[in-house]
Amino acid sequence: MPNLLVKPQGNNGFVHDITPESAGWTYVGFALHRLAAGEATSGDTGEREVCLVLVAGKARVTVRGEDFGELGERMTPFEGGPFSVYVPRGATYKVTATTDLELGVCSAPGGKGFEAQVIRPDRHKQMTRGKGTNTRYVTNIMPEDDGAAQSLLVVEVITPGGHTSSYPPHKHDEDNLPAESFLEETYYHRLNPSQGFAMQRVYTDDRSLDETMAVENGDVVLVPKGYHPVAAIHGYDLYYLNVMAGPSRAWKFNNAKEHAWLFTGV
């Protein structure tokens, strides 16, 4: 199995390029570009579909020659909601940075009948999830109930320093609907201030997979199976962008039984 912790390839340009082949799985791809104003990146989705997430900065986006204009508001992922663009299977796209830009390219197998569209930050309101030091702030970009894609599920989360997230531990590694769905997942992490770190554990019930990682700013964690809780260290807020995909576009998970007591009285 490939290393679950993927470090950035430098600070600018093509920073991450995670493919199903490099990850050793079937569905999820994730790339990250950091561009200066005036620089551009382009692509052809082929048999896949793509969600372009403006993690930070502004850009002009075109799909199949259709100009969606300049998009973006926030200059860091910790200030406001995301602008994103869905690009269907068999389409070309181009993204031209109009400010310094951090662009996430989320991908999965595509299907017919889906149209390119802008996903504005007010389309899905930010939700507060959890209580106490398990409180975090969730913004769906492409949730399962929007009917906008064949495979992709995309969400971003802000976890305040000293808080936990993806917790109590849950998993989605069995294709057993309606009880549970099989979904591969990537976590792209950012920290504020950037010199901080967080902790993430990926493990299965039988501990055949059990890795705990110190996650630094710009790292990606691969979750091929198992539980995957995250802890943000005191003093450093954590942002992560999740990409999920599997044989069904459904997010159905099961919680770790030994931690079920955490759901009572909290």
TrEMBL record:
Domain of life: Bacteria
Presence of the UniProt keyword Cell division in the record: no
Pfam families, A to Z: KduI
Entry keyword Isomerase: yes
GO MF annotation terms: 5-deoxy-D-glucuronate isomerase activity; glucuronate isomerase activity
Alphabetized Gene3D superfamilies for the sequence: Jelly Rolls (2.60.120.10)
NCBIfam families recorded: myo_inos_iolB (TIGR04378)
Protein name per Swiss-Prot or TrEMBL: 5-deoxy-glucuronate isomerase
The species this protein was found in: Ferranicluibacter rubi
